[in-house]
Design brief:
With about 400 residues, the chain is α/β, with parallel strands linked by helices. The chain has two domains: about 1-50 and about 305-400, Alpha-Beta Complex (Aspartate Aminotransferase, domain 1); about 55-305, 3-Layer(aba) Sandwich (Aspartate Aminotransferase, domain 2), CATH 3.40.640. Helices cover about 40% and strands about 20% of the residues. It has 13 helices and 15 strands. The chain has helices at about 1-10, 55-65, 75-90, 100-115, 135, 160-165, 165-180, 205-215, 270-275, 290-305, 305-325, 350-360, 385-400; strands at about 25, 30-35, 40, 95-100, 120-125, 150-155, 185-190, 220-225, 250, 260-265, 330-335, 340-345, 365, 365-370, 375. The chain has a seven-stranded mixed β-sheet with strand order 4-10-9-8-7-5-6, sandwiched between helices. Helix 7 (about 165-180) packs parallel to helix 8 and helix 11 packs parallel to helix 13. The structure holds 4'-deoxy-4'-aminopyridoxal-5'-phosphate. 4'-deoxy-4'-aminopyridoxal-5'-phosphate binds near residues 102, 130, 223 and 225.
């Protein structure tokens, strides 16, 4: 399979792990390989309610057998989904646009923010990742791509000093822009700073940075593609931990539990400005089946109280990791909220070794950060205490070795 794959798939693709996995089936928090061996999935945030959740699969299949069309007809599911999404968001956010990926949502947010502000300058973090389009790849320095001339970077608020200096650095960026004759359009951040290596505490640190961009005439775009849909445990959306109301919110990944459905939600005045001169039609964005799937995900999140579980199990796992940190000097810091945890390790090589050793013990995690020296733990939200114990025990024994 590996040879066949390499023959036909573009060389831009990357596989996880020194010994890549050939996965054939998923169920809940488990993935199964071609030999029937099972792996604990501690990494996939997309299947948020668990791999192949029967309720989601059933509603997807039922809707696929009934109707699948686009947003140029009046259909029920996009309206129902928009209403349900808005009910989870602050009341200032009133207008939903459906897309098929986080990239499409962010790309649209960038367009809207330019029109709404008249600006062209963007501020992102040094380890940001925001998507695949031409525009977004040049706002995603973690990939090694050179940022566009009007994209300015600030160090991510990882570590105590960078947290307190985050807002002043945003202000400094704005001053630099102005000196270069660039009018600010937006501050765009992933509100859990996943690709930067996870930055979560103290909650509230985003607020003064958002005040800076607004004072300069720009808007705040909250990229909720990673933290959204309850992952951070205390709220549905990562920005809510910081007590701010964004101008634009983008979401995707977990929204369809693996099905490609994503969205952008905007304040009325920001979207209104854009809508004066622009139309938006996305062939698959807002299709009947995708919206039904997203409704099923919201339904399961609520029924199974998974946001609460993210908090309870996340706290338990974080405590366990802190305990490991007290015994293993290779762990420098444990960050994160809910079931989005980052374990700051000593060095890239060691981190890579731990990730691969865990995979050999059937525990799947990944790494993050500009130096790839952070263990990223980000399981489906149906992850329980028993699974957290497996992670802790396996990591403990690997670090002891
Ligand atoms: N924003 C963030 C923070 C992401 O992590 C990603 C995907 N890794 C994206 C945007 C892009 O989403 P997609 O891959 O669905 O286009």
């Amino acid at each position: 399979m590996l040879a066949r794959r390499q023959r036909v798939l573009a060389p831009t693709y990357r596989l996880f792990y020194e010994e890549p996995l050939h996965i054939v089936r998923g169920e809940g928090v488990w993935l199964y390989d071609a030999e029937g061996r099972r792996y604990l999935d501690c990494y996939n945030n997309v299947p948020v309610v668990g791999h192949c959740h029967p309720r989601v699969v059933e509603r997807l299949a039922r809707q696929a057998g009934k109707l699948n069309t686009h947003t140029r007809y009046i259909t029920d599911t996009p309206v129902e989904l928009a209403e349900q999404l808005l009910a989870t968001l602050p009341r200032e956010l009133t207008s939903v646009t459906f897309t098929c990926s986080g990239s499409e949502s962010n790309d649209l947010a960038v367009r809207i923010s330019k029109v709404a502000t008249g600006g062209t300058g963007f501020i992102v973090t040094e380890g940001a990742y925001h998507g695949t389009t031409e525009t977004l790849s040049r706002m995603s320095p973690v990939t090694g791509v050179k940022t566009a001339p009007e994209v300015y970077t600030v160090p991510a608020p990882v570590g105590a000093q960078n947290v307190t200096e985050f807002a002043p650095r945003v202000r400094e960026c704005i001053a630099q822009m102005k000196r270069a004759g660039v009018q600010p359009a937006a501050l765009l951040v992933d509100t859990i700073f996943g690709s930067d290596g996870v930055a979560s505490h103290p909650a509230g640190f985003l607020e003064p940075a958002v005040a800076e961009i607004r004072a300069a005439g720009g808007v705040f775009i909250a990229d909720e593609v990673q933290p959204g849909f309850g992952r951070t445990g205390d709220a549905m959306w990562g920005f809510q931990r910081h007590g701010v109301v964004p101008d634009l919110v983008t979401m995707g990944k977990p929204m369809g539990n693996g099905h490609p459905v994503a969205a952008l939600v905007a304040r009325a005045e920001v979207m209104g400005e854009f809508a004066k001169e622009h139309r938006y039609f996305n062939t698959f964005g807002g299709n009947t089946v995708s919206c039904e799937v997203a409704l099923a995900v919201l339904d399961v999140l609520q029924r199974e109280k998974l946001v609460n579980n993210a908090r309870v199990t996340g706290d338990y796992l974080k405590q366990g990791l802190l305990e490991l940190a007290s015994r293993h000097p290779a762990i420098h810091e444990v960050r994160g909220a809910g079931l989005f945890l980052g374990v700051q390790m000593e060095g890239r090589e060691r981190t890579t070794r731990v990730v691969n050793d865990l995979r050999r013990e059937s525990v799947l995690i990944g790494s993050a950060g500009r130096n790839a020296d952070v263990l990223k733990i980000r399981p489906p939200l149906c992850f329980g205490r028993a699974e957290a114990d497996i992670v802790l025990e396996t990591l403990d024994s690997i670090l002891r070795e």
